[in-house]
Amino acid sequence: MSVEIKGIRKIALLYTGAVVWTPTYLLPFSIEESMARFGLSESTAGWLASAVLLCLSLSIIVFGRHTATLNKRTGALAAAAFAVLSTCAMFSHNFHVFVAAKLILGAALGVSCVCAYGVIAHVKHPEKVAAQVAVAMAIIFSCAMYVVPIVNVKMGHIGVDAVQLAVVVAALFFGAFMHPA
Fold first, then answer.
1. Taking a C-beta distance cutoff of 8 angstroms, is the pair 6, 124 a contact?
2. How far is CA 11 from CA 8, 72, 74, 81, 174, in A?
3. Which of 1, 83, 89, 174 is deepest in the core (most CB within 10 A)?
4. CA-based nearest residue to 102, from 92, 111, 112
5. 3: exposed, middle or buried (C-beta count within 10 Å: 0-12, 13-18, 19+)?
6. pLDDT in tens, 130-154
7. Do residues 176 and 13 make contact, with C-beta atoms less than 8 angstroms apart?
8. Do 55 and 107 meet the contact criterion of CB atoms below 8 Å apart?
């Protein structure tokens, strides 16, 4: 069944589909933050960033098996809520809380990925919508590449977390408008 999605639901789909790749696009800033805040070496900070991407991937594998029965709106909302909570926890000065929050963020964004791309599979012309998600990604993360350094100057090394928080809070808002597919 192909569904025509327009208006706010289309924006929600494009935004949710783009935001799932936040850890990838903010990777250089996240590595720098881990090194500066917790004194990690480059390789250890890189391992942490890789672990986040591993959690994202594993989450996609686990939840992807349930795509057909998963309510995409509920999934996107729950994932965005976990992403917001985990990003808030990243402001902690406790290294273990920081690491756990990063891993939870990766898993939450994996669920968002399953939901967004699960909806894309049901729309008319999914290839066009997937291309539009790529455009949304380019816009969102091009802006982030300019905003994070400015916020870092104002807030210190937690600037990347502040920008990420803004991105996932918007995902929570848009998640309410996702098509349930």
1. no
2. 5, 15, 17, 19, 8
3. 83
4. 92
5. exposed
6. 999 999 999 999 999 999 999 999 9
7. no
8. yes
